[in-house]
Task: structure prediction
Amino acid sequence: MSQIIKNSSFKFLMVGVVVIVCLLNAHCKSYAVNVYEEWDQATFDQKLSDPSGSLTLTQDVRVVGTVVLNCESAFTINAGNHIIMAYGASGDLTINNNLNINGDGRVWDESLFRYLYGAVTTENGGSVHINGSNITSTAIYGVAVSSYNGNMQISNGTITANNDSGFAVYADGGTVNVSGGTISASQADGVAACAQYGGKLNITGGVIQGYSAGVSARGYSYVNISGGQITGSSYYGAGVYSYGNSNGMSVINITGGSITSTGKYATAVWANSDVDHSSTGSAIVLSGDVQVNVGAFASQKTATGNGKIYDFRGITVIPSISSGSTTTATSTIAFTKTEIQNNSNNPLCPLSASGAVIRYTTDGTTPTAYSTIYTVPILATAKLIYILEKDGFVSKPTTLNYLITLSMDLTMDKPSLQMLSSGHIKASTQIANSKGEKSNIKIIVSLYNSSTNTLNEIYVLNKTFEVNESLLLTHEFMNKDSLSKCKVKVCILDGFDTLKPIAVSQWNSI
Result:
């Protein structure tokens, strides 16, 4: 073995390998990650008070403790290939106004051909709050800000990837919440905001503009969009793009905001996958009030490969409330019109044709893909929340607000009807509040005329029920039709100005 090691040819080969490795490292711009300076609030204050108005980093910076950056006038940090990182649970960085941070990002991933860290980043539980200022990545494949197993909040400011194939915002195993600001990646193949490798991206506001895509989820990642203006601008690009691969499934859930593609042959919503397996595919779910905008030759939504799109926007379920056969203070909810109408305004057809089901809760909690499936009318004494579900994907929850928690327990007898000598009809019913809490109700006596098929309110009474009060309600009315029927409807009210049924009597007739 010693003779082989001493062989001059082998020495030359080893030197060549070392040279090649060094060249590759230089080409990939990979730098040591354990060389950094620790800066606390006092250090940042001292550095940002430089009269030149600028600072060039020579090493990575780790934030120590809680740091808030407030600049009274414009100040520029040139990060180059270095990063400012909030590291660990104690690392908490807030960036307010008047800062300009320019950097290329850090730590190259050859398999992704992309930087993993942004100029400003989190790691291992660190937190960053961006409330203003400008953060820009200037490198090809660069990242402006990122969250690597940490948390980032973006409420204002401008974040830009200003070169080809860049990411402005990148959630890599961490969580990024965007509620405002402007995020852009307008150069070739740029993506404004992306989640990957377990990353989560929650968007409730802001303006997000990308070239290939405004927002993207790639391989084992989740994006939730409930607000904001998202745009993809390339010729064949997408407003939002979900791409599943061998790393796992990517999901984008859209319940609000606007999604736009301005490219001639683009698509606003695109679900794609290169792996033919359901657990590693991609899905986009549309529900709620989502605006989708495209040009004349573009598509609103496209699914390719193993990608799937669940568009619940075209499904309308119409609940109804009835008294059933009881006279207690409960409501029976029935989805009597479980029908769908697609976005092309085609005729209604059964809900089952879509493959979706209704799932619901009656205890005030938000239903999930595992909640009870609606099959028969539901007896509800509080409120009912329902969703549509298909293949484990769910729509935005809908709450039936007119079903409320009762402040009283009403009971009501079936009205008795008596024909008087005058020819009038006397209706009587006993109403009682057994729970013992004061409450306002409205009592309505309705007369149904079967010959004319009309229903008229012939008596309305606003009544405040006192503690444990009972009421014998009587009302006389003219008998215009011997087939007329009478019923009493009791409604819970706020100030006697709304009708929310809590007990409805049975019909009775002479």
Observations:
- The longest helix spans residues 8-28.
- The chain has a mean pLDDT of 77.
